[in-house]
Amino acid sequence: MDLINISEFDSSHDLLLPPFMSHIDVDKSVHRHEERHRKIREQLPRQPNYSMRSELKRLKTHWAQDPLSGCSPKELASAGFYKTGLENSCQCFCCGLVLCRLSISPTPLERHKKFNPSCAFIQGKDAGNIPIYDIRVQPKEIDPIDVKVSMENEQTRLQSFTCWPVYASIKPCELAETGFFFTGTGKMVKIDVKMDGAKYRTILEENLLESAKDLRLGQKFVFQQENDPKHKAKSTMEWVTNKRIQELEWPSQSPVLNPIENLWKELKTAVHKRSPSNLTELELFAKEVWARISVFRCTKLIETYHKRLAAVIEEKGGATKY
Ligand SMILES: [Zn+2]
């Protein structure tokens, strides 16, 4: 999309001059203005400016520079535009489109749509906009993805970033190129012997802190496990205490409270769909599907947690729809 060589003059609206101005050469004048506008656009950076994600911050730029502007500052700010400081121009924080004319009609939003319909903000995507009166829009939950290729493929890794926030300073292509993919879950481990207390502790030792590190949780995470005898073995409890891991107190026999059950179900369905024909495939598919459960799916489960809790209390510990 060429955002430099655009004309903000619309012949049907702008070129009708009253008779006393008939001596003005309209075409020449418009051309002169367009040239000036083009020079302004060329001087401004063309990438998104996420420091202007806040509508209020954008509004303040209009108030500061031009409190009596012919164009409504509120309309400009809510259409994504902040004042650049170059003459009267203002720019979209998301796509970098520059408007140089303060015409009331068409509105800034209409002009934004006209000149760059592909702007993520205009398309209603999560472009990081922070509206004045609303809390941030929650990212849409993505559908479970049918995993066809492993994460060894750069293109597949890139696809894992579907819901990556556009305002993050590092770009998905840079991350995918260097081997990263976007994930919401910790490590999944294959257990090939009978699980007992000692094996469970080894699994924790080898994976829990590493998962916390991978997910960038720092020291602030709370560990949740059910009251299985293996989980509650003395040696396991000692290990948890020694590592200063904060553990969540957990009621007995309450799988409905545990969000992991939802993820297990999704995992089973997705792996089953791919019909693994041997144990190696089963492990591979399970790990792939697990790795691609999005961070937003996990967030969603946590967000709805209070409803789940209320339902259990309501049913006095009996069956709920969850
Ligand atoms: Zn835009």
TrEMBL record:
Q: Which InterPro entries match?
A: BIR_rpt, Naip, RNaseH_sf, Tc1-like_DDE_dom
Any Pfam family: DDE_3
Q: Which Gene3D superfamilies match?
A: Inhibitor Of Apoptosis Protein (2mihbC-IAP-1), Chain A, Ribonuclease H-like superfamily/Ribonuclease H
Tc1-like transposase DDE domain: from which residue to which, for each copy?
A: 209-282
Matches recorded under PANTHER family: BACULOVIRAL IAP REPEAT-CONTAINING PROTEIN 1
Name this protein carries in UniProt: Tc1-like transposase DDE domain-containing protein
